[in-house]
């Protein structure tokens, strides 16, 4: 438990046990606990071109393929 009022940065990797379209992230804390969360970001671990905080690889590759085809046909 953190007992300071100073900004602390935490990074975690969450791994889903299965694929779902209705998944939820639920955070549970002890009764009476105080929690302040700010600046939450969720990114895939395996990103497009390995960029930190990058795009989902599948979406970016699809977008790149679409742009390449359009550029070649003009």
Number of helices: 1
Order of helices and strands: H
Oligomer class: single chain
Number of strands: 0
**Mean pLDDT across residues:** 81
Overall morphology: elongated
Query: What is the rounded Rg?
Result: 19 Å
Query: Low-confidence parts, pLDDT < 50 over ≥5 residues?
Result: none
Largest sheet: none
Straight-line distance between termini:
59 Å
- Strand proportion: under 5%
Q: Which range best describes the helical content: under 10%, 10-25%, 25-40%, 40-55%, 55-70% or over 70%?
A: 10-25%
Give me the secondary-structure category: mainly alpha
Summarize the structure.
The protein is built from one helix and no strands.
Overview of the structural elements:
- The protein is mainly alpha-helical.
- Helices cover 23% and strands 0% of the residues.
Layout of helices and strands:
Elements: H1 57-73
List keywords for this structure.
74 residues; mainly alpha; 0% strand; elongated
